[in-house]
Specification:
Number of domains: 2
Order of helices and strands: HEHEHEHEHHEEEEEEEEEEHEHEEEEE
Radius of gyration: 19 Å
Number of strands: 20
Strand order of the largest sheet: 14-13-10-6-5-18-19-20
Number of helices: 8
Largest sheet: 8 strands, antiparallel
Distance between the termini: 22 Å
Length: about 350
Amino acid sequence: MAVSDHDLIHAWRQVLSLSKLEAGQCVTLLTGADTHPQTLRCAMTAVQSLGGIANRLDLPPVNGGKSLSRDSLAYLGTTPLTGNRTAMAALKASDLVLDLMTLLFSPEQHEILSTGTKILLAVEPPEVLCRMVPSEADRLRVLHAGERISKAREMHVVSAAGTDLRCPLGQFPAITEYGFVDEPGRWDHWPSGFALTFPNDGQASGRIVLDRGDILLPMKTYVSEPIEIMIRNGFAQSIEGGLHAQLLSDYMESFDDPEAYALSHIGWGLQPRARWSTLAHYGHEATIGMDARAFEGNFLFSLGPNNEVGGSRTTACHIDIPMRHCTVELDGEVVVERGRVLDGDIGGRT
């Protein structure tokens, strides 16, 4: 069901207040061809109602000859900001950028953040935004998980389906996404709610078995039969199974980039208002699938780049795979047991 402007403006006001927007601060709304008009309209109203100075920067799409779908995460190559000095100057001069276009995994995003500008990504449909308005409790819960990851030196993931993956940790920091930007130079994504890190380069190994109901993104497909992925020296060496394994393999092969097969971020979902089943209610072009990435107790792993945390891989291919019913251990301590988060229920359930 659609949501009213009143409800979406209220949601934006909550998120902007959590992001510590102050009267007189400059907010740039970064938009593109796929920006949802209601999201833009209500964000602009909310910024102005809180005393912010609102600007809109609308940029044309790029990568038309390379992207295989309209999903904003399907091709992470050049952005409309690449080589655009005028646009970059405006964004760097902003206190807050509301990214309604998607700059994820781009050097331009890093450059903007380095100036202290905050960036909040928000590209999901308005009803999804309203259902998953973040809270301070979400922040505390996600930060607690991030602290546990930061202290660990190995993540071990197993499942009844046959997954047995070991990922040495410590080379890269923990990343926390709770849905708002409350510190200078922070990036986050509304909606979200998960903690993650990246395995040490070239060290992850083991077997990942995707079971029925696990999700392939950006394909936005529920796996209907097992897929086995063998990881050695930090890379997927083989992808075997039925039709969905073939679709995944063909998509990845289209990038003609060996780095696309590297194990990227690993972590688990912590958002109780996100639902595993939501993806079944949307057409492929209506959502980027944040419910799937954030639902509580998933094991979320990725294949592709690691430049978000200072790594050297900048491949345009980015595959996210949320899995159900996994057990996740950090240095032998269970933090997710068969899809149930063991964190003492710190925050998060408001």
